[in-house]
Amino acid sequence: MSTAWLTDLARIYPPARLLTQPAQLAPYESDALTAYKTRPAAVVIPETQDEVIAAVRICYQHDVPFVARGSGTSLSGASLPIQDGLLIALNRLNRIVRLDPEERIAVVEAGAINLNVTKAASPYGMYFAPDPSSQLVCTIGGNIAFNSGGAHCLKYGMTSNHVLGIKAVLADGEVVTLGGDSLEGAGPDLVGLFVGSEGLFGIALEITLRLLPKPERYRTILAAYDSLTKAGDAVAAVVASGLLPGALEIMDRLAIEAAEAAVNANYPPNAAALLIVELDGEAQQVEEEFRRLKPIIEASGAYEIRVARDDADRMRIWKGRKSAFSAVGRLSPDYLVNDGVVPRSRLGEALTEIERLSAAYGMRVANVFHAGDGNLHPLILYNGREAGAYQKAEQLAGEILRLCVAYGGSITGEHGIGVEKRDYLPVMFGENDIETMHRLRRACDPKEIANRGKMFPGGGAPALHQAGPHPLEVAGVISRE
Questions:
Q1: Tens of pLDDT along 157-210?
Q2: Is 418:77 a contact under the CB 8 Å cutoff?
Q3: Does 479 have pLDDT greater than 50?
C-alpha cells in the first residue's frame, strides 16, 4: 500500500498526534474484546472536528480503511483496528459544547464521557438517562455506535431514545446534519438509522442529547433467591403486574462472588441469584408503585428481601452491580462477554438452559444482565493459556446466541455485532434483509472503508465460528437455511 496518505496526514497532524511506531500503536491493537488484536498502520489523535474531517477525506482519497474509537470499551471487537488502516482516536474531542436546561438538551462532542454529561447537567436538576456499566469511561460516540442501554433502559429506553441530532462526517468526507434539537422530527428518521450503525456510515462529531429531570424519589429493593430460575420468573411477575420499574437487574452466584470480592457490597450470603428492582419518579407515584411491588417480590420465592434505607444504601447496591463485569476478572484469568436477548416471558427457561450448557461444556458462566428487557450478559470464564480454551468458549457463546434466536430474541442487545457475532447475522436475518443493510451501507460508503470487516458475514476480519450443528438445529427448532 502506498504511504502517500501518511504524508498527507503529516501535513495536518504533528508527530505527537500521528502515531506510527510499533510501541505507539500497541495500546490500540484491541478493544475490550482482547482475544482479537490487529495493529493499524497509524493512529491519529485529532483535537478538532476539522481534523477528523480532514483525516476521513484523506482516507477516502487514498482508499484507506479507517476506524473511529473512543475509550475502547467495545465488547464485540467493533472498534478493533484494521490492518494497514487508520485508527482515529476521538478522546480529545470531549467538549460539552452547549447545555440548555430550559430546552433540556446538551450538545456534546463524540469523545465526551457518558457520566460527564450528567455531571454537567446535575446543577440544573437534569441528567442523561442511558447508563451503561462503563459510563465512567465510555464515550457518547461509542454509545451512538452501539445504541447502548444500561441498567435503566427498561423504563427510559436506549441511546436512540435520547439523541435528537447528529453532526457527522460520512465515509466520503461529506459533513451532514441529521435531526436537530427538537423531539418532533420531519421526514425519514436518519438519526435512528445512524445510531447503532457501528461506524459503518461514518463518524459522529457532535451530538444533541435529550436531558431528563432527575427523579424526585427512588425506592430500591434487593431480593435474594436460591435459584436463578426463580429470579427470572420474578422479573416476569413484576412486568406482568403492569409496573414499569426504572431498573430490573439480575446477578447470579458467580457475579455476586466477584462483586463482593471487589467492592464489599454486603449482598445476602449464599444467594444463587439477586434481583435488583428500582422504582423512580415523582414521590407520590413511586410510593404507590412500591406499595404494589413489595407483595409481588414477597410472593416470588425470595428468601431475603432488603429495601434501601437511604441514598448511600442504594448506591452501595448499585456499586456491586456496576462493578460486576470488571470484578469477574478476579474469578478467572480470561472471560468472554456474551450479549443476547430473549423475551421476558422466557427468561426463566433461558437461564435454566444456560446453566445446562455451562455444565455440558464444563465451563463456568457468570450471569449479569438487564432482566427488564431480557438482555442477557453471560460471562464465560476460561483460561486463555490452555490450548483450545478460547475456541471452546466461542462455541458455548454461539450456543447461547442461537438459543436466544430460537426463543424469539436477538443476537445482541447493546454490545453490537462487531467481529464477534458476524457469522451469526444470518441466523437472525434472511439474505434479503442483509442485502438491504449492505445497500444502505454502500449508499453512504461506496468504498466500504468505514469500519471495514465489521458486522457483515465474510471478509477478512476475525469472527466466531460455530463447530458442528447446534442441538436445537438437530431437533428442527431452528434452521440455517
A1: 999 999 999 999 999 999 999 998 877 777 789 999 999 999 999 999 999 999
A2: yes
A3: no
What φ, ψ does residue 231 adopt, rounded to 5°?
-65, -40
CA distance 181 to 183: 7
List residues bridging with 280 in a β-sheet: 218
- What's CA 145's distance to the chain center, in Å? 9
Average pLDDT of the residues of the chain: 90
pLDDT of residue 150: 86
Give Dmax over CA atoms of the chain in angstroms.
69
Residue 212 has which C-alpha cell? 431528563
Does the pLDDT at position 453 exceed 90? yes
- Give the pLDDT band (50/70/90) at residue 465: very low
Which amino acid type is present at position 181?
D
pLDDT score of 1: 59
Q: Which domains does the chain have, with CATH numbers?
A: 4-89 (3.30.43.10), 96-213 (3.30.465.10), 217-327 (3.30.70.2190), 332-474 (3.30.70.2740)
CA 151 to chain centre: 11
CA distance 161 to 388: 41
Unique residue bearing C-alpha cell 446466541: 401
56: closest CA among 21, 96, 92, 12?
Answer: 12
Question: Residue 62 has which C-alpha cell?
Answer: 487514498
pTM: 0.89
**To the nearest 10°, the Cα dihedral for 64, 68, 71, 73?**
-90
d(CA 392, CA 363): 9
Q: The dihedral of CA 224, 230, 232, 235: what is its sign? A: negative
Q: Are 71 and 11 contacting, i.e. CB atoms less than 8 angstroms apart?
A: no
Q: 347-368, pLDDT tens digit by residue?
A: 888 888 998 999 999 999 998 8
| 157 CA to centre of own chain | 13
Closest among 196, 142, 148 to 414, alpha carbons compared? 148
